[in-house]
């Protein structure tokens, strides 16, 4: 026991003489003396070799030794913190500041906000609705009969059946909810994400974004629809863009028309984007079908209206000449950083 006591005294002198001017040196002290394999633990392990009649006296010595080591460690840590604080206050004000990274909105958000801004200037309010919809608001209210192919599971992501709940296939469901709660005049646009069970490729995706519009009032005509869309196209793409309407079919509008603009990527000469026609389809439109108005208690003999819908990805593709729809959702910083200045 006498030999252990002498060894403890030597360790105490060694700890008292230990100096640490850095956090690394303080940590080295802790590991050497107080760590799981440190000297304090090693010495305390000698208790098993001490005779029983001396254990009490030796236990007091060990406790005092451990407290001494811990106190010394706290002292060194406190001194080291003061040293770091004093050093940290020595700021070189001549050094340049740290650069601040400038973020940006996603290109789809940029275009969506611009679309909303254009139609707001025409008096359209913004309406939003749930992405998980029931069959009535997504299909039935929009004059899509039960045997319509859009209801098939190859086109629609169904969450449950009987009753049917699904991921909305268009934001027309938001128009349905607006007509359900509001009577004419109605003038809204409905931006949002929609889902369709399509193969992901450079030209298609299983989810994308739409902005649909609805205007219902007395004496609304197809001429009002055309002038509204002419204004939108010129504000979005410039005064020189050419526009054409093509007859089409949608269950919820009659008559219906597709709207094309001259391809901004090839200037109308023909490319892969416009399928070498010089024209790119950007939206579908038409006069609201009387059956849709009747579904919500709106008198089709008194009120008429028009509706339109466009894909935000397609508008963004033309505006920023993006050749692959998958780039929008891959989170590739090399792609996204190109829009840093377009806040």
From TrEMBL:
SUPFAM superfamilies: Class II aaRS and biotin synthetases, tRNA-binding arm
Classification via InterPro entries: aa-tRNA-synth_II, aa-tRNA-synth_II/BPL/LPL, Phe-tRNA-synth_IIc_asu, Phe-tRNA_ligase_II_N, Phe_tRNA_ligase_alpha1_bac, Phenylalanyl-tRNA_Synthase, tRNA-bd_arm
Pfam families: Phe_tRNA-synt_N, tRNA-synt_2d
Gene Ontology biological process: phenylalanyl-tRNA aminoacylation
Annotated positions binding Mg(2+): 254
Cofactor: Mg(2+)
Catalytic activity: tRNA(Phe) + L-phenylalanine + ATP = L-phenylalanyl-tRNA(Phe) + AMP + diphosphate + H(+)
GO CC annotations, alphabetized: cytoplasm
Sample GO molecular function, one term: phenylalanine-tRNA ligase activity
Chain ranges of the Aminoacyl-transfer RNA synthetases class-II family profile domain: 111-338
Gene3D superfamilies: Bira Bifunctional Protein, Domain 2
Location in or out of the cell: Cytoplasm
Cofactor note: Binds 2 magnesium ions per tetramer.
EC number from the UniProt entry: 6.1.1.20
Domain of life: Bacteria
UniProt keywords, alphabetically: Aminoacyl-tRNA synthetase, ATP-binding, Coiled coil, Cytoplasm, Ligase, Magnesium, Metal-binding, Nucleotide-binding, Protein biosynthesis
Family under the similarity heading: Belongs to the class-II aminoacyl-tRNA synthetase family. Phe-tRNA synthetase alpha subunit type 1 subfamily.
The protein's assembly and partners: Tetramer of two alpha and two beta subunits.
NCBIfam families per UniProt: pheS
Stated name of the protein: Phenylalanine--tRNA ligase alpha subunit
Species of provenance: Hydrobacter penzbergensis
Organism classification: Bacteria, Pseudomonadati, Bacteroidota, Chitinophagia, Chitinophagales
């Amino acid at each position: 026991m006498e030999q252990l006591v002498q060894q403890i005294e030597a360790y105490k002198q060694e700890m008292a003489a230990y100096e640490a001017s850095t956090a690394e040196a303080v940590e080295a002290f802790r590991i050497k003396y107080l760590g799981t394999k440190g000297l304090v633990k090693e010495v305390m392990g000698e208790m098993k070799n001490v005779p029983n009649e001396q254990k009490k006296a030796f236990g007091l010595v060990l406790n005092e030794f451990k407290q001494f080591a811990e106190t010394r460690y706290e002292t060194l840590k406190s001194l080291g913190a003061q040293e770091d604080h004093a050093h940290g206050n020595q700021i070189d004000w001549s050094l340049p500041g740290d650069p601040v990274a400038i973020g940006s909105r996603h290109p789809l958000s940029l275009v969506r906000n611009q679309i909303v801004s254009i139609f707001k200037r025409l008096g359209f309010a913004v309406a939003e609705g749930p992405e998980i919809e029931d069959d009535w608001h997504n299909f039935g209210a929009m004059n899509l009969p039960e045997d319509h192919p859009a209801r098939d599971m190859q086109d629609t992501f169904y969450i449950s059946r009987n009753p049917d709940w699904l991921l909305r296939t268009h934001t027309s469901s938001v128009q349905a909810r607006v007509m359900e709660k509001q009577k004419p005049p109605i003038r809204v646009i409905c931006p949002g994400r929609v889902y369709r069970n399509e193969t992901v490729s450079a030209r298609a995706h299983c989810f994308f974004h739409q902005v649909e519009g609805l205007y219902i009032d007395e004496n609304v005509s197809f001429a009002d629809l055309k002038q509204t869309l002419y204004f939108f196209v010129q504000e979005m793409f410039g005064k020189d863009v050419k526009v054409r309407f093509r007859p089409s079919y949608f269950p919820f509008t009659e008559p219906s028309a597709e709207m094309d603009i001259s391809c901004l990527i090839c200037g109308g000469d023909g490319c892969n984007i416009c399928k070498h026609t010089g024209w790119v389809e950007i939206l579908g439109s038409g006069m609201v079908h009387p059956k849709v108005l009747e579904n919500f208690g709106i008198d089709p003999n008194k009120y008429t209206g028009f509706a339109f819908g466009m894909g935000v990805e397609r508008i963004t593709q033309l505006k920023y000449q993006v050749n692959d729809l998958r780039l929008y959702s891959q989170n590739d910083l090399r792609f996204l950083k190109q829009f840093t200045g377009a806040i």
